[in-house]
Amino acid sequence: HTIIEAEAIGPSNQQDIMVIAPMSATVAAKLANGIYDHPITLAAKAMLRNGKNIVFGIATNDGLGISGVNIMKLLSFKQFFAIPFRQDAPFQKERSVVAKWELLEESLDQALINKQLQPLLLGSKQ
């Protein structure tokens, strides 16, 4: 909950995996660009330093807009795994994406063995 608490995560090295859900476009941008100014981003930095994976569930109105660059950048890093996601309202909010929350547990299981749950981009019926 605080930066001081988050700083203890690195030295303790007690966590196997981290979940950030929901992850906003702002948090995605900070992590994608190495900005660690919040308990969540600082905890993520500690997990990465310890070689642990991070699973994130994106929820943003701009995931298929400019924020998409940061989401894709995170997915290019070997320690980041996404809960599969889809457009949540393609005709009302054409750039909006949200994770399929029911796939969190399965996403965690796969990330623990360094695999991305597939398919990552879900259609409207998945």
3D structure, described in words:
With 126 residues, the protein is α/β, with parallel strands linked by helices. The protein has helices at 3-7, 9-12, 25-32, 39-49, 68-76, 104-111, and strands spanning 17-23, 53-60, 80-82, 85-87, 97-99. Strands 1, 2, 3, 4 and 5 form a five-stranded mixed β-sheet that branches. Helix 3 crosses helix 5 (68-76). The mean pLDDT is 94.
Unreliable segments of 5+ consecutive residues:
none
CATH fold group: Rossmann fold
- The domain tally reads 1
What structural class do the secondary elements suggest? alpha/beta
The shape is: globular
Helix content: 25-40%
How is this structure best summarized?
The chain is an alpha/beta fold and 126 residues long. It is 36% helix and 19% strand. It contains six helices and five strands; from the N terminus they run H-H-E-H-H-E-H-E-E-E-H.
